[in-house]
Design a protein that fits this description.
This protein is mainly beta and 124 residues long. Helices cover 4% and strands 47% of the residues. The longest helix has 5 residues, at 103-107.
Amino acid sequence: QVHMVESGGDLVQAGGSLRLSCTASASELSFALYTLAWFRQAPGKEHEVVSIITRSGENTHYADSVKGRFTISRDNAENMLYLQMNSLKPEDTAMYYCAAGDFLFLLQGSSLYRGQGTQVTVSS
């Protein structure tokens, strides 16, 4: 049963930008109740926690590898989560997943709910 659905992944040149979006696949999942996150995984690489945003949106966390380039945001009224990705690098190539849970759980790469992913490919 899919609870979260990502979109916005694409093939882009290095230095370009993409905006990923995530929404709930079913109305019973209210994003406002959860801390939300973006994870990514590239072939042959470990699962990485890209960014986390608390329920109010007041606090955010970023992996060192994306700080200053990526911005996470949310719209609880619309049940949406976003990831603005600028200055993309080939090493950002991965499947990106949105996830919901509590902060410490997400920081460890675990989640209560997770989408099936959207592919981001950055060419050099």
